[in-house]
């Protein structure tokens, strides 16, 4: 098999599976699981090629430049694909157990989820601004109905607000793309940088619009308002996908565009601004997470905070920062997936997720709590974990560039993260009250518990296998250094 | 075969790491199997450590290097200093495990307890064998995390508060430590621990940066080593079960901090550089303040374990003081105190646990006349307390002896004053306890007759107490901690 | 053969462990102590070669020297006698504790006599000191506890001084053996400092004024046999320490030694006078010990300061110390024997006046020896001190006869052992002293010098018999100091409220807690509200800001 078939299959197989599911009309979790399995194998099969050649390009439809639609798998894309594939497996297994008895919801999930997976894959592989817009819209449109799976009426408000912001973001992004196209005459990421004329107002405005559009989608601080309700309200499996992948995709995009086509337009000052937003997100998000009274909101606000770390690349813009930001994306994805799945298990057992009333859950939910704890290690950025490696890289970058204010932010962020993670973990150790009330829910089946744990363990393992992954990632394409 | 032998630090690490994993996985259902695995692992580790001891004594150095990040390796490296710490931990792990099995008999959540306990020891092994600052930090954090569940094990509000305090202090300390490590990494790149330090060439170009980083490193480790003013977590953490206190104070946590300080001073900065930068004096002053302050605070504590905790605050700084004086004699005193303090303090905490578990006694004033009912426990407590005061022939005397000699040799006569003041203060807060336990009539004259602690509690207590005695009495013996430390210091000072 | 030296301290330690486990009764203790004594006597007779144990502590050296040979002999007699007298104390509820304290004290005491290096001497000294606390407070109750407190405070004070001195010494010579001491001092920068510290540290044990205050409190509080060994043997620890670890003939130490001399002489007189005003026989004896040790300090101070020949002084120091050990031990034990019949009372009177220098007793020889070796005006002073000593001991006899006593009959072997010690006290000096001293003691002048102070004292005692004498509280200096401390504590409590730093810290923390208003403001921030419009504004602002930065 030629390696350039792989990216194509990565995009089309999920869509095909979603379509099949839709036609079948009854939930077929096995199909979904086979799909994510195959998806993972495909991604793994991509690794040697990318490692050898740096990137694999697939040309869709056989058109030549400038009409060609390329799929490009380079190190960055590959890592994001890998993260997606790993999460997809865990979430699918979890979902299979979670929706075993709910026919209607299961059908919707198993239809939408492959579509979302395909859209994400396509987003990561796309290499022109318009395709990116399309895939970004697809991701949003597949994601929002998933939020509604929580139950009749529960998350309608949240989903609507999500929709509103997502569309707004897309529109602003599209406006920016249009402006740039007018300037450069091309949308191809590789060509754009060279084609853009130097510092025109329109060019700058276009770049600004693109960035702000993505910021909204990525729920970066002032635009985070839609996120907690949507992520906190959705079913656990969906929350995991949204928090770990969907917003991450937007953040990924910002990294890719900033170091690629927008490189000639960006200035250090803008980088500092984004960094400042990231820092604010870290501090504010963590503080809010600490103050929440409901478990899933804690985890959701944690996402707001964690996304901020990825923005710290922009002010520093050195290789270590690049690696740190991307690595943080990976680590956070795995850890946050585990956190949401574990939180889902707790919710399932207790019937609620109010922190004050959680006691005596350590025995029935030991495995889930283990997952929560391990994932928490990575979220806090404590060694050995992916989160720590990322933090280390970012710290190194801040020392290297002499921008000590990010150093302080990073360290403070870690402490704040510890505050909210341990606020949850302590529940596992609190003495149960004298009269234990009847538990309405059931003890989660092993599959649900262990799928969370596997993700958490992966987040930890990420801390000890960083060398090959970072080598795969390489340096920022157009980065300043 | 030689590869396997070379990887000894890894096996030692794994012996408790795997035990932890298995214990946690087993859950509550198989107590006998769990106890079996726990003891087997502890014994196995002891054997492995024994093999390593022979190797290191013969001049072999175990080294294991795994690349972790670009430019950063995970290095496990066992030298004489590592062995000092490892041997102590391995030995006391066994004792504490036996003690804990008896102590927690029939209490809930034992699998969790023993699992994290083993994890702690694994982290300690990692700290001891870490070959560079990065690896050190890795295990240092692992220790922080695996200790927390033990501190909050009881699950009461008080325990939770203690746990919160513990986390704030230690994680804050780690953040500072991490900052120091990152800055040093930026300045000098990744550096393995090498006797005598590796930073000498930077002293002319970056004296200020080196000073700042030193302060960050020591500040970060000082939290665990309970240097004043960042010692606050230790006394509150005494709400944990007695074996945990033993672990915190003697086997792992506090020791890890002190050990880290030793590593930074000896193997990162080197004694000469530290003196050139004027940091030695600073460290000595910090340590001295802690010694006096901890002792002063201990006097007013009415809870036995709290008093012991403040005593630790004071005693652990002997180690820092010893190395800060920067001459061979004081170094011997400081390093050997790493072991001696562990032996004595674990004895004391074991005894406190025996009192609490057998007769429900926590407050010092309830100890009146307990010597009649628990003569052996009380005798061991007496040994520990007298050792802390620094009376011969107990281990504490040997430490104090060398520290005193070192202070005189360094011409720092004020340190002799500190040592004497500490001795007197120790006497002030320990001797009244001894007076109570032996000579006061019991509050309740009805309670007559022997009522010793259970064998599982008394056995480890006797072991630790006599070990504290033997470490002092047979200090001249070839395999005593003192002899080992002398060997170690000889290597450090004559490269 | 040399291993016997090791066995002597080791045996009591094993016995102590047996006592701890409750496996030893009074018989076990008796047999064990006698066995140890037999070994000690054997060692005294055989005088084995020194023993080096490099693996023990910091390298241990055990050996006998001239002084310790005499003292070991005394110990070998006094310990069994006292142990037999202790009898019932080993049994019963607190027997375990008493046995431990007793046997550890013995181990420390015997070990101290044998150990010839700094570390192990300090070890034995400390074991002796701290185990003896158990003997002092054994009776429990306020008097014993007060005595114990004063004893401990002074002991710790002494030990700290010693430790400081030891650091200085050891920094120069590692763990020096006794033979290396002069060399170590010769190489030191500040021999005065180290010397003075050691001198003062050991002075606590010797009861040199003003560090003597523990003696008159501890002796009456402790059980009778404990007082016997305390006064007879334990206080000699200071003497042994002085002679072993201070260099003789060292001019650098002359000032300190002279001060010691003056204090010793002052103590000899003052303690005797204060003691003569005491009410209880054991307190009187305690002051007698202070007084006698004051006298004994004189030759030591002369040797240390280089004002007398070591060779001539050492034997008579041993003589004086040995005699005092046996005589004072026997006298303390005799407190229980007074009501045992006329013969015993006669023996006690002879022993008591023997210390004052009654003709034909060992005490006379001891004093004669002291006088023979010193220069004027010391012999005169020593003769004069006989007056005060006589007064003191007459007071003792008077109070003893007035004491109602317990009246219980003691077993014969207890009496026999006591008699043995008494006899040894009377005879030992005759064996040890050299012929010229003996000649003087038996000559007319010697007898005259011995008798007139006694008669004078007897006269004074008879004269004052009916008078109401002023009283001085036991422990003289302690009472005002305790009073002052109480006042200071009260003052502190009034002014600061409490001395505990915890309270101060709490107050400090409470004052910097974040204000509640601030928290509420933060909480409001997260609430959802008019977010849409806010978001719109934010978006526009962000675009503009970025635009500004990008162009």
Strand and helix layout:
The complex is a heterotrimer of chains A (481), B (495) and C (551).
Chain A: H1 5-24, H2 29-53, E1 55-60, E2 69-74, H3 75-98, H4 103-125, H5 129-147, H6 156-184, H7 189-195, H8 201-217, H9 227-233, H10 236-259, H11 268-291, H12 295-311, H13 313-316, H14 319-350, H15 366-380, H16 386-401, H17 404-425, H18 446-461, H19 466-473
Helix pairs in contact in A: 1-2, 1-4, 2-3, 2-4, 3-4, 3-10, 3-14, 3-18, 4-5, 5-6, 5-10, 6-8, 6-9, 8-10, 9-10, 9-12, 10-12, 10-14, 11-12, 11-17, 12-14, 12-17, 14-15, 14-16, 14-18, 15-17, 15-18, 16-17
Chain B: H1 2-6, H2 8-26, H3 31-57, E1 62-69, E2 72-78, H4 80-103, H5 110-129, H6 133-151, H7 157-188, H8 207-224, H9 233-236, H10 242-251, H11 253-269, H12 271-276, H13 279-299, H14 304-324, H15 328-359, H16 370-373, H17 375-389, H18 395-409, H19 413-439, H20 455-473, H21 481-493
Antiparallel strand pairs in B: 1-2
Chain C: H1 3-20, H2 26-46, E1 51-53, E2 60-62, H3 66-86, H4 95-114, H5 118-136, H6 142-173, H7 181-186, H8 191-206, H9 214-221, H10 224-234, H11 236-245, H12 254-275, H13 281-304, H14 310-334, H15 342-356, H16 362-373, H17 378-402, H18 412-432, H19 435-442, H20 444-464, H21 478-496, H22 501-512, H23 516-525, H24 531-550
Distance between the termini of chain C: 100 Å
Which band does the percent of strand residues of chain A land in?
under 5%
Strand ordering within the main sheet of chain C: 1-2
Oligomer: heterotrimer
- Largest sheet, strands/sense/barrel of chain A: 2 strands, antiparallel
Shape of chain A: globular
Number of strands of chain A: 2
How would you sum up this structure, described in words?
Chain A has 481 residues and is mostly helical. Chain A has 19 helices and 2 strands. The longest helix of chain A has 32 residues. The model of chain A has no long low-confidence stretch (mean pLDDT 87). In chain B, α15 packs antiparallel against α17. The model of chain B has no long low-confidence stretch (mean pLDDT 89). Chain B has a domain of 218 residues. With 495 residues, chain B is mainly α. Chain C has 2 domains: 474 residues, no CATH class; 40 residues, no CATH class. Chain C is built from 24 helices and 2 strands. In chain C, β1 and β2 form a beta hairpin. In chain C, α15 packs antiparallel against α17. Classes of the chains: A mainly alpha (481), B mainly alpha (495), C mainly alpha (551). Chains in contact: A-B, A-C, B-C. Chains B and C meet through α17, α18 and α19 of B and α4, α5 and α6 of C.
């Amino acid at each position: 098999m030629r390696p350039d078939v792989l990216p194509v299959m990565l995009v089309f197989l999920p869509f095909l599976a979603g379509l099949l599911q839709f036609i079948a009309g009854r939930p077929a979790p096995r199909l979904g699981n086979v799909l994510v399995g195959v998806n993972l194998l495909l991604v793994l099969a991509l690794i040697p090629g990318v490692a050898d050649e740096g990137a694999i390009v697939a040309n869709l439809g056989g058109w030549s430049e400038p009409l060609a639609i390329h799929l490009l798998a380079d190190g960055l894309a590959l890592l994001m694909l890998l993260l997606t594939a790993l999460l997809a497996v865990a979430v699918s297994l979890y979902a299979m157990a979670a929706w075993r008895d709910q026919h209607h919801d299961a059908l919707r999930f198993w239809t939408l989820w492959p579509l979302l997976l395909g859209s994400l894959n396509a987003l990561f592989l796309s290499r022109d601004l318009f395709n990116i817009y399309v895939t970004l819209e697809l991701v949003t449109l597949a994601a929002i109905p998933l939020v509604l799976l929580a139950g009749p009426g529960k998350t309608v408000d949240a989903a609507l607000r999500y929709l509103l912001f997502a569309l707004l973001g897309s529109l602003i992004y599209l406006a920016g793309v249009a402006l740039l196209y007018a300037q450069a005459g091309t949308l191809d990421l590789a060509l754009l940088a060279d084609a853009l004329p130097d510092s025109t107002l329109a060019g700058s405005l276009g770049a600004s619009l693109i960035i702000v559009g993505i910021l909204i989608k990525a729920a970066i601080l002032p635009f985070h308002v839609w996120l907690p309700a949507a992520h906190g309200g959705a079913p656990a499996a969906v929350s995991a996908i949204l928090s770990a992948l969907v917003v991450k995709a937007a953040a990924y995009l910002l990294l890719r565009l900033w170091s690629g086509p927008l490189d000639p337009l960006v200035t250090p000052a803008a980088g500092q601004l984004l960094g400042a937003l990231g820092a604010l997100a870290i501090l504010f998000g963590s503080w809010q997470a600490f103050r929440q009274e409901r478990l899933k909101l804690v985890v959701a606000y944690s996402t707001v905070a964690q996304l901020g770390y990825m923005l710290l690349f922009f002010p520093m813009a050195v290789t270590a920062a690049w690696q740190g930001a991307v690595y943080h994306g990976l680590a956070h994805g795995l850890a946050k997936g585990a956190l949401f799945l574990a939180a889902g298990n707790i919710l399932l057992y207790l019937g609620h997720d109010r922190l004050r009333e959680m006691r005596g859950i350590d025995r029935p939910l030991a495995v889930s709590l283990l997952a929560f704890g391990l994932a928490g290690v990575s979220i806090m950025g404590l060694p050995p974990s992916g989160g720590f490696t990322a933090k280390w890289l970012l710290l190194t970058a801040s020392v290297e560039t002499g921008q000590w204010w990010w150093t302080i932010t990073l360290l403070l962020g870690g402490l704040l993260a510890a505050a909210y993670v341990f606020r949850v973990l302590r529940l596992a150790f609190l003495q149960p009250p004298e009269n234990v009330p009847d538990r309405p829910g059931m003890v989660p089946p092993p599959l649900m518990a262990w799928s969370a744990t596997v993700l958490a363990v992966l987040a930890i393992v990420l801390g000890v296998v960083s060398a090959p992954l970072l080598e795969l990632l390489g340096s920022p394409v157009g980065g300043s250094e | 075969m030689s590869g396997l032998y070379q990887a000894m630090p890894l096996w030692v690490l794994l012996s408790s790491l795997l035990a932890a994993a298995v214990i946690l996985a087993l859950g509550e259902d198989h107590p006998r199997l769990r106890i079996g695995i726990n003891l087997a692992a502890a014994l196995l580790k002891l054997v492995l450590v024994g093999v390593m001891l022979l190797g290191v004594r013969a001049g072999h150095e175990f080294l294991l290097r795994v690349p972790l990040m670009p430019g950063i390796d995970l290095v496990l490296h066992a030298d004489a200093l590592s062995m000092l710490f490892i041997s102590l931990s391995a030995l006391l792990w066994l004792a504490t495990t036996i003690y804990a099995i008896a102590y927690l008999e029939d209490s809930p959540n034992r699998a969790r307890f023993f699992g994290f306990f083993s994890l702690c020891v694994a982290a300690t092994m990692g700290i001891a064998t870490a070959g560079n600052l990065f690896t050190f930090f890795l295990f240092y954090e692992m220790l922080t995390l695996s200790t927390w569940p033990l501190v909050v094990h009881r699950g009461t509000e008080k325990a939770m508060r203690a746990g919160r305090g513990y986390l704030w202090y230690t994680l804050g300390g780690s953040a500072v430590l991490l900052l120091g490590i990152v800055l040093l990494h930026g300045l000098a790149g990744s550096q393995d621990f090498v006797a005598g330090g590796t930073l000498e060439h930077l002293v002319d170009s970056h004296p200020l940066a080196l000073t700042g980083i030193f302060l960050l490193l020591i500040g970060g480790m000082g939290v665990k080593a309970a240097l004043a003013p960042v010692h606050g977590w230790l006394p509150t953490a005494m709400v944990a079960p007695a074996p945990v206190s033993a672990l915190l104070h003697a086997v792992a946590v506090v020791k890890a901090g002190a050990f880290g300080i030793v590593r930074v001073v000896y193997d990162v900065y080197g004694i000469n550089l530290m003196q050139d930068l004027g940091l030695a004096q600073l460290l000595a002053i910090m340590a001295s303040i802690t010694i006096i302050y901890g002792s002063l605070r201990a006097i007013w504590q009415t809870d036995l374990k709290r008093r012991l905790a403040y005593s630790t605050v004071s005693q652990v700084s002997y180690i820092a003081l010893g190395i800060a004086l920067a001459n061979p004699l004081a170094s011997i005193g400081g390093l050997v105190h790493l072991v001696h303090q562990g032996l004595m303090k674990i004895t004391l905490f074991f005894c406190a646990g025996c009192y609490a578990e057998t007769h429900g006694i926590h407050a010092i004033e309830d100890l009146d006349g307990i010597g009649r009912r628990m003569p052996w426990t009380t005798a061991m407590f007496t040994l520990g307390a007298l050792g802390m005061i620094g009376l011969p022939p107990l281990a504490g005397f040997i430490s104090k002896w060398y520290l005193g000699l070192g202070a005189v040799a360094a011409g720092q006569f004020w340190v002799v004053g500190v040592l004497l003041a500490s001795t007197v203060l120790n006497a002030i807060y320990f001797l009244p306890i001894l007076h109570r336990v032996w000579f006061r009539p019991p509050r309740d004259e009805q309670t007559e007759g022997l009522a010793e602690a259970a064998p599982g509690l008394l056995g480890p207590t006797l072991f630790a107490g006599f070990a504290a005695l033997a470490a002092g009495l047979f200090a001249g013996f070839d395999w005593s901690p003192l002899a080992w430390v002398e060997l170690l210091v000889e290597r450090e000072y004559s490269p | 053969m040399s291993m016997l030296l090791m066995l002597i301290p080791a045996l009591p330690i094993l016995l102590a462990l047996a006592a701890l486990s409750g496996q030893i009764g009074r018989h076990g203790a008796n047999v064990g102590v006698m066995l140890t004594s037999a070994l000690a006597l054997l060692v005294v007779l055989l005088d084995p070669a020194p023993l080096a144990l490099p693996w023990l502590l910091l390298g241990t050296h055990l050996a006998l020297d001239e002084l310790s040979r005499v003292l070991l002999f005394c110990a070998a007699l006094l310990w069994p006698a006292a142990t037999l007298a202790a009898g019932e104390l080993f049994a019963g509820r607190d027997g375990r504790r008493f046995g431990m304290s007793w046997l550890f004290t013995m181990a420390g005491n015997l070990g101290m006599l044998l150990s010839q290096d700094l570390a192990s001497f300090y070890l034995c000294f400390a074991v002796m000191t701290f185990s003896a606390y158990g003997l002092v407070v054994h009776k429990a109750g306020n008097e014993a506890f007060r005595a114990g407190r004063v004893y401990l405070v002074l002991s710790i004070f002494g030990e700290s001084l010693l430790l400081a001195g030891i650091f200085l010494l050891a920094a120069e010579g590692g763990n020096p053996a006794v033979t290396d001491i002069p060399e170590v001092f010769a190489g030191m920068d500040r021999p005065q400092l180290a010397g003075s510290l050691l001198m003062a540290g050991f002075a606590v044990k010797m009861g040199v004024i003003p560090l003597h205050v523990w003696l008159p409190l501890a002796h009456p509080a402790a059980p009778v046999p404990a007082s016997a060994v305390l006064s007879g043997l334990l206080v000699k620890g200071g003497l042994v320490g002085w002679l072993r670890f201070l260099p003789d003939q060292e001019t650098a130490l002359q000032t300190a030694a002279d001060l010691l001399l003056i204090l010793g002489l002052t103590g000899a007189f003052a303690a005797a006078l204060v003691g003569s005003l005491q009410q209880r026989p054991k307190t009187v004896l305690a002051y007698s010990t202070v007084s006698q040790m004051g006298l004994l300090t004189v030759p030591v101070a002369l040797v240390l300061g280089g004002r007398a020949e070591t060779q001539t002084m050492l034997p008579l120091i041993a003589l004086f110390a040995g005699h005092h050990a046996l005589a004072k031990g026997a006298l303390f034990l005799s407190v229980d024997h007074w009501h045992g019949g006329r013969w015993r009372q006669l023996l006690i009177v002879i022993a008591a006046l023997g210390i004052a220098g009654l003709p034909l007793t060992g005490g006379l020889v001891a004093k004669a020896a002291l006088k023979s070796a010193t220069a004027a005006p010391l012999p005169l002073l020593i003769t004069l001190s006989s007056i005060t000593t006589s007064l003191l001991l007459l007071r003792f006899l008077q109070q003893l006869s007035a004491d109602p006593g317990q009246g219980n009959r003691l077993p014969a072997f207890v009496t026999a052992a006591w008699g043995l010690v008494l006899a040894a006290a009377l005879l030992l000096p005759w064996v040890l002293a050299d012929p010229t001293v003996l000649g003087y003691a038996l000559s007319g002048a010697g007898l005259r010098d011995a008798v007139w102070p006694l008669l004078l004292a007897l006269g004074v005692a008879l004269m004052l018999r009916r008078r109401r004498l002023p009283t001085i509280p036991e422990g003289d200096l302690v009472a005002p100091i305790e009073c002052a401390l109480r006042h200071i504590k009260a003052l502190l409590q009034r002014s600061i409220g409490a001395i505990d730093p915890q309270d101060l810290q709490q107050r400090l923390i409470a004052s910097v807690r974040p204000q509640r208003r601030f928290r509420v403001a933060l909480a409001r921030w997260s609430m959802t509200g008019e977010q849409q419009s806010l978001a719109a504004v934010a978006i526009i602002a962000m675009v503009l800001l970025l635009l500004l930065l990008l162009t």
